[in-house]
Prior knowledge:
The structure is a homodimer.
Chain A: E1 2-10, H1 14-32, E2 35-40, H2 45-51, H3 59-63, E3 68-73, H4 81-95, E4 100-106, E5 124-130, E6 140-143, E7 151-159, H5 160-175, E8 181-186, H6 194-206, E9 213-218, H7 219-228, E10 235-238, H8 240-252, E11 261-265, E12 273-277, H9 294-307, H10 310-325, H11 339-350
Parallel strand pairs in A: 1-2, 1-3, 3-12, 5-10, 8-9, 8-10
Antiparallel strand pairs in A: 4-5, 4-11, 6-7, 11-12
Bound molecules: 3-isopropylmalic acid (2 copies).
One 3-isopropylmalic acid (IPM) sits between chains A (85, 244, 278) and B (189-190, 220).
EC number (chains A, B): 1.1.1.83
GO molecular function, one term (chains A, B): NAD binding
Keywords (chains A, B): Manganese, Metal-binding, NAD, Oxidoreductase
Amino acid sequence: xxxxxxxxxGDGIGREVIPAGVKVLEVLAKEFQFGLxxxxxxxSCAYYRQHGEMMPADGLExxxxxxxxxxGAVGAPNVADHVSLWGLLLPIRxxxxxxxxxxxxxxxxxxxxxxxxxxxxxIDFLVVRENTEGEYSDIGGRxxxxxxxEVVVQESVFTRKGVDRVIRFACETAMNRPARHLTSAxxxxxxxxxxxxxxxxxxxxxADYPDLRCDQFHIDILTAHFVQxxxxxxxxxxxxxxxxxxxxxxxxxxxxxxxxPSANLNVEREFPxxxxxxxxxxxxxxxQGVANPIAxxxxxxxxxxxxxxxxxxxxxxxxxxKVTGDGFLTRDLGGSETTDSFTERVIGSLx
Amino acid sequence: xxxxxxxxxGDGIGREVIPAGVKVLEVLAKEFQFGLxxxxxxxSCAYYRQHGEMMPADGLExxxxxxxxxxGAVGAPNVADHVSLWGLLLPIRxxxxxxxxxxxxxxxxxxxxxxxxxxxxxIDFLVVRENTEGEYSDIGGRxxxxxxxEVVVQESVFTRKGVDRVIRFACETAMNRPARHLTSAxxxxxxxxxxxxxxxxxxxxxADYPDLRCDQFHIDILTAHFVQxxxxxxxxxxxxxxxxxxxxxxxxxxxxxxxxPSANLNVEREFPxxxxxxxxxxxxxxxQGVANPIAxxxxxxxxxxxxxxxxxxxxxxxxxxKVTGDGFLTRDLGGSETTDSFTERVIGSLx
Lengths: 351, 351
Ligand SMILES: CC(C)[C@H](C(=O)O)[C@@H](O)C(=O)O
Ligand SMILES: CC(C)[C@H](C(=O)O)[C@@H](O)C(=O)O
């Protein structure tokens, strides 16, 4: 098979981890004998500074033919978030109906949890985040601007279609895991319209899966449980905002966001899916060559899995865990490996 | 001085921890020579089952003359949250303009953190939560009910008055602490109208405090930092929802919500303020006499502080930490003390 993959290194450390990922991908393609057509797109804050927009007007059209997008990170200190993120990242997620943001949390070999006494046996779950609607809407506005009476409103929008499909995906995913356990993140005791609706649809959709063990927690106590009882969780489904929070908190108990991968999935494959590390462009360390490429490698494993090259993905993660297990870690994990040296070690362990 | 205090034990373990609190309060009143007029109100889910409402129509009027309200917990498994919470807890917070929800997080003597190697020196911060507006609004609704086209919307409402006053309180509070450090919880990269407004007002209000060290984090990475770097924080200010999340997560790194206190403050004292443990009614353990009363005792300390009886409050917490420091803990903390036996030990340590 030949895979068409769009690369968007983006900004900051995105420009360091994506090249590392490409190196690894090329080794895997040789070893596992699949074809790779990598096309790089310059869409980024640098592009914005030159062209006044993050990507050309037909940017999404350019990306559409690809089977997958591998994105580094977007954002720069002097570019407003509503420009960088709402001009690139969020439109890709939405326009390509990447309605599942899948974020695994697992304690890798050789990485220790900040939680006392917790081992890999305790930390192994998946956050399934709704990725197109909910709290991230662009509906809202301001009244009485600049006065004491100023009022700002923001609409959250939940739809039957949007809620059901992500919960259904979470059910299917949980059914394929040994524990068959699905947890819903809610806040229906405080957020009076959308969250009771989320609960109602959670009950309705999960009713089709009698073999699934289902429970729900309000987001406040759920974050506490992530710290006190990470072993309670298997698959956790949440709205756009709650999933966002849980998928940074989860990695924090498993070594930090230098490690955390994500897959933005258009499950039906009508549009390209996007794979990206959870971390941002990290301007504070960009250019130093010290970024941790694990989050990108793990995202590549998710991409390979999605493309049908699961053995190659598994080999990649085995190589990563061989290296971390041998004690070679980047700076964010307390080690002294650079992006390059770590990548070379992974490639060395691959072959 | 004579203090008029309204007691609302409420439901579940609220009916166990409030009586424990009353015992302690009465001992303190004798020892520190202040007068106490305690008036108990039956407002609860039990009351609802008899009267069809959580409190009488003039319930708030009945509470208004009091200087403080001490509340246990509200909620029962067979009563909908929108009945129990929106019929009692949330109206009190709102109608009495208790716009600050103050929630200290500190590792008490003898209690260990689930975070490896973290001691009391690392965990000592305050969450200041907006408590009247924001994401907890009752504006919203549903369209195309029961069909595939179903849409549910929910409005978040942020006002200049609401945002400024809680940030200003946080600034004043931080200025009175040695570290003079204030962190804002935001999500302006994803939530496009209200959160950039929050950031804007944070900049405007903190400009009046040049001696304050200010920073901000998006809520997703902030939850990660609470786990990875609890020592980074001093005072953390957040919206109603973000403050709610952080004030369950904070206690999780400091021994759990069995310990966590809160003060719902009407800073100007035009209306009564309310003091309550962060935990809920805990129907799973209610009636067993094993609830941890520390959250209530600590809330009482906050109440005494607010009333002007700081020495009595300090004595109470010293007694609590004497008992925990001697290794006497309730079940939630891995010990075998009951609500009663723990309370007796605290009283024993008081005199
Ligand atoms: C019970 C619920 C509505 C409440 C809240 O979210 O405010 C509780 O979680 C709290 O923190 O006091
Ligand atoms: C950058 C930001 C808009 C984004 C999000 O909140 O979705 C990020 O935090 C993520 O998790 O991918």
